[in-house]
Amino acid sequence: MDTAIINSKEFTLSDNLSLIEYCKSLRSRYKPNKKVLLVQIPQFIFKSFNSEIAKRKGYYIFPPTGLQYLYESLKNRDLDIKILDLNFMLLKKVCEDEIFDDTQWLISLKNSLKSFKPFIMGVSCMYDSGIPSLMQILEFLKREGQSVIIAGGVIATYEWENLLSRKLCHFVVKGEGENKINYLFDHLTEENQNFAPIPGICYNYQDNDFATNGKQDKITLATDLIDSYSLIEIEKYHEYGSLNPFSRISGISDHPFAAIQMNRGCRGACTFCSVHDFIGSDIHKRPVDKVLDEMEFLINRRGVRHFEWLDDDLLFFKKDFQLLLKTIIKRKWRISWSANNGLIASSIDDEMMRLMRDSGCIGFKVGIETGNAEMLKKIKKPVTLDTFRRVSRIFKHYPEIFVGGNFMLGFPHERFCQMMDSFWFFLELDLDWGAFTICQAIRGATAFSDFEDHFSTQISLNDENIKNFIPTRESPKGQLSNKLGIFKSMDVFKINPETVPSEEQVKEIWFTFNLVGNFINNKNLKPEGKVEKFISWVEMAQIAYPTNAYMSLFLSLAYIIKGDQKNSRNYYNKAVLCHQSDYWRERFSSFGLTGVLNNLPRNAETAWKTMETLREYCSLHYRVG
């Protein structure tokens, strides 16, 4: 009998005999061939999908990096593997076909099945926002009944029992999949490469749930993803969407972009995040030279000019990353890069900032999450408030780089006074932007271990229960719904400090913090600021919010400060048009913006004075003492 020895623990084929028998039955039920189709699902919530925003490249279009890693782990097998990025195909259709009905997006999958006829299909879903799409795909594949279905990713990992009980897939691969899928393929295909038995493959055989046995695997990341790019039109992704506002900035959005990764995993074990639970405590590292090889290939062979780092802890191997940046500088690559996920502040110093600037960094976010010391400890963020204060002083010496801070509102049991600490702390740090988002209940995150009832409502074809971390993205118009009994606009500062705000109340707090913090108090709309940074960021952000009236108004003010009357008038006209709705008239009035709209400043000096008046008006509501 074949055996595998791992750390002196012996496992035999009999430990996973049911897997072998199940795979054999599947080979007899379906038509085995060498074709494998890996599917990336749409990356947005369909209930709020707006085709006009799609045509302006306002939706995310991240390449299928996770599936590329799977391809690299399988490429030495005698298989014909393809990647189907349904997100890319849907956005491309919307942009190019005037009569395309986005509700018929599954046609692309149907056509691929018909032409390719895969024996094995893999479908992955990382976030709750993708659950309705995942469920529709799996229901469709179940009806078609022509392939063995493997589900993976965060959602499948934590909902494997649901998926199997509904017979929506044959296997669920939990956690990282490179080694697990190879062990599964040893038995599902006729090619056995003798991968060691491994836990984490779940399946239902003869009406019983099983999970494979074996020694916990250790992942070795693919050294590069160069070969996998033969399956992806990476040079066309920028034509149909964006990675974030950084990739939409003028001069960057006109050129191909790519996602890049140096490490997988994170040193932290933050309670609101599932990375540590999903991946484990290890941080997998790619060799610096191989990351550079991949970048060079994308630059020279595929025309990529902008890179977005996907890492959850990009600076963990600090010296390696500095070596990479020094090499980019030495090679004089004419590229830009950004890191929107959020860097860990404790790894940032003056030398790191200098290298980032000189290597083409246009901006990044810092993962702050909260400005309340008690909450910072509660969520186990591996940093202190003083660390953020230290790095904020360093940032001032590098004004070329756009620096934002990631903040969350609505942690479990978070009081309003703690949210206010985040608001105050953002103003204190004086960053270019505060990316306020709503804390989302995430499977595998310890803060939400008692949210089983909540998660059970998410696993459906209906996206009505799916929430977005940016509340206005839940509506096609980018507006919050009016709820009775909720403090709105400047009145949110009247909330009892010790109250734990409701979900709907947190959305209004988010709206006010964002407008007052990022627009009325924005450092770059002050005389000593760099107004170009505000303009470039907000213009690109507004692509996803074309009917947002206050974005247009403040862009009009920014262009006045810059001395560009033509663009100021264009944005002013947009603000006036949007202001015709009852929604925006009410919002403008409550924030003191109606007077600005009715009496637009004529030059930089009066614009700065107007901004100061707005700040004084707002401070009457939130200043203490």
Record the SSE blueprint.
Blueprint (H helix, E strand, L loop, with lengths): L2 E4 L2 E4 L4 H13 L5 E6 L10 H5 L9 H10 L5 E6 H11 L9 H11 L3 E5 L6 H14 L3 E5 L1 H5 L1 H6 L5 E3 L4 H11 L12 E5 L2 E4 L33 H4 L8 E4 L2 E2 L10 H5 L4 E2 L2 H15 L3 E4 L8 H14 L4 E8 L6 H9 L2 E9 L3 H6 L6 H11 L6 E8 L6 H14 L3 E6 L13 H5 L46 H18 L10 H12 L6 H14 L2 H14 L3 H9 L3 H5 L5 H19 L3
What does this entry look like structurally?
There is one protein chain. This protein is α/β, with parallel strands linked by helices and 625 residues long. Among the domains are: 3-211, Rossmann fold (3-Layer(aba) Sandwich), CATH 3.40.50; 234-439, Alpha-Beta Horseshoe (pyruvate-formate lyase- activating enzyme), CATH 3.80.30. It has 25 helices and 17 strands. It has a seven-stranded mixed sheet, sandwiched between helices. The chain is globular, with a radius of gyration of 25 Å. The model is unreliable at 1-11 (pLDDT under 50).
Cα gyration radius (Å): 25 Å
> Helical element count?
25
As for the CATH topology of the domain at 3-211, it is Rossmann fold
CATH architecture of the domain at 3-211: 3-Layer(aba) Sandwich
Task: Write a compact overview of the structure shown.
It contains 25 helices and 17 strands.
Keywords:
625 residues, Rossmann fold, pyruvate-formate lyase- activating enzyme, seven-stranded mixed β-sheet, six-stranded parallel β-sheet
